[in-house]
């Protein structure tokens, strides 16, 4: 059946159900009479409501049978269920026999999420956790870099839970389980639970300008998503659930000032309680509605705007210009981010955790390997960075790691091509030093400075082919460092 014909058929069902509602023999389901609510339909999913008595069910069946005869659409008895509560057992048996449907139990899934008369529990959300775990398991066999994993976490894994999080407040334990899955996948590449983490998850959730990776904080995002429903309630939008909430619980009260109705469904209570979050965002004498309207763009509520305002504020880091740079390869940028936070597993850091390892630097074999020594304190890494800078046409006295980071932070804030190329080169040099260190330490490799310099130069030239404004500068760099 075409979508247009289906809409016509559902319109006929709507009219038949409206006629059913005015018959004396039919009794409404509790708290449905004021709104005349008899059914909800979305695509081919149909929910019908009625009081649990023989007369109401009989009339409902007669109405639906007329619709079936006229449209040719019939209920699939194997996929249909009847949900009964609060009536005697003998009446329940009669209703089941009359409809021919099997008795279902709450909760059940509707449009992909559980419908439950009580607060959402952990068991009902395990399907969400399972879906995320299965997706991670598919990726675990692939040799993904840190940057590849973080991209998958930010896009795919977050997208899976977004649908649920926009409907109701997820249990804290479920959000914690999802966070553990994402954290474990990032740092280990597997689904096996692990506490290994080079940097705390909360740090990853900070904006890039404050030193994080801008990973969404699911707890805050979930609360921000509820504000969309709060605005709809405050604006009294023309939808069934909002009319129902206003008729039976809000009753012309000011949502911003009213007490949370204890008799309301837990979802309604959580939405009303979200007004407390809005109060923290309000400035001056702004009302609840006017504050929520600041989060609207072109008529649509922007959850991201609410999220940004609800997220804790942190001071910006000195090296934000490097971290926000768009010309650095993602793999190099992630490694540089770890290096800036000094979370690389150098010998001095391993010793703090009681891990034994050969002490000497693999490059010079004279000094102990420490982060400050590895990055430009060692004569060989110092010379590598010096050679690359001279190739770029920059002559300067190379200092400590912190000196170079401060200099690069100032340089990266400039918008000329030389600054862009130097920033991209710096990130690759930091990455190559660590890669060569691991190759020597674990695979008995040999360090060849000439080969590393050639690799860096070739990468910059290949990257520059996609950037028109780099072309002129690259013409003068037609030799290897």
From TrEMBL:
Residues 1-115 form the Reverse transcriptase domain. The gene is LOC107798876. PROSITE patterns: RT_POL. It comes from the Eukaryota. Pfam families: RVT_1, zf-RVT. It comes from Nicotiana tabacum. PANTHER family: REVERSE TRANSCRIPTASE ZINC-BINDING DOMAIN-CONTAINING PROTEIN, REVERSE TRANSCRIPTASE ZINC-BINDING DOMAIN-CONTAINING PROTEIN-RELATED-RELATED. This is Reverse transcriptase domain-containing protein.
């Amino acid at each position: 059946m075409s979508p247009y014909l289906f809409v016509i058929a559902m319109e006929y069902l709507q009219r038949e159900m409206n006629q059913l509602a005015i018959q004396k023999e039919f009794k409404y389901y509790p708290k449905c009479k004021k709104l005349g609510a008899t059914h909800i339909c979305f695509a081919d999913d149909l929910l019908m409501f009625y009081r649990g008595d023989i007369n109401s069910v009989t009339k409902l069946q007669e109405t639906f049978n007329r619709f079936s005869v006229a449209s040719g659409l019939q209920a699939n008895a194997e996929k249909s269920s009847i949900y009964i509560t609060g009536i005697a057992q003998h009446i329940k048996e009669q209703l089941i026999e009359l409809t021919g449907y099997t008795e279902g139990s709450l909760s059940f899934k509707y449009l992909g999420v559980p419908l439950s008369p009580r607060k959402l529990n952990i068991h009902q959300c395990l399907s969400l956790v399972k879906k995320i775990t299965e997706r991670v398991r598919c990726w675990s066999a692939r040799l993904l870099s840190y940057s590849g994993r973080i991209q998958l976490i930010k896009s795919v894994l977050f997208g899976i839970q977004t649908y649920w999080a926009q409907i109701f407040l997820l249990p804290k334990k479920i959000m914690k389980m999802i966070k553990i899955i994402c954290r474990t996948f990032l740092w280990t590449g597997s689904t096996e639970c692990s506490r290994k983490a080079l940097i705390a998850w909360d740090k990853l959730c900070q904006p890039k300008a404050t030193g994080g990776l801008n990973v969404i904080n699911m707890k805050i995002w979930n609360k921000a998503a509820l504000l969309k429903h709060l605005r709809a309630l405050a604006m009294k939008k023309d939808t069934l659930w909002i009319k129902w909430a206003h008729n039976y619980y809000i009753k012309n009260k000011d949502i911003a000032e009213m007490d949370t109705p204890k008799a309301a469904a837990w979802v309604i209570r959580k939405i009303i309680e979200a007004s407390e979050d809005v109060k923290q965002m309000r400035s001056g004498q702004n009302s609840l509605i006017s504050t929520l309207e600041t989060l609207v763009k072109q008529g649509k509520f922007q959850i991201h705007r609410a999220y940004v305002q609800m997220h804790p504020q942190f001071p910006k880091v000195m090296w934000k210009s490097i971290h926000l740079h768009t010309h650095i390869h993602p793999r190099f940028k992630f490694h540089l981010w770890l290096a800036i936070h000094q979370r690389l597993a150098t010998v001095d850091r391993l010793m703090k955790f009681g891990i034994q390892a050969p002490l000497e630097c693999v490059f010079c074999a004279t000094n102990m390997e420490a982060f400050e020594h590895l990055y430009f304190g060692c004569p060989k890494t110092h010379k590598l960075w010096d050679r690359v800078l001279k190739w770029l046409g920059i002559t300067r006295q190379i200092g400590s790691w912190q000196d170079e980071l401060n200099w690069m932070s100032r340089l990266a804030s400039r918008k000329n091509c030389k600054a862009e190329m130097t920033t991209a080169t710096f990130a690759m040099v930091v990455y190559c030093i660590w890669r060569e260190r691991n190759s020597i330490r674990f695979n008995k490799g040999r360090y060849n400075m000439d080969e590393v310099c050639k690799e860096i130069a070739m990468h910059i030239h290949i990257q520059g082919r996609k950037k028109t404004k780099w072309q002129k500068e690259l013409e003068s760099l037609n030799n290897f460092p």
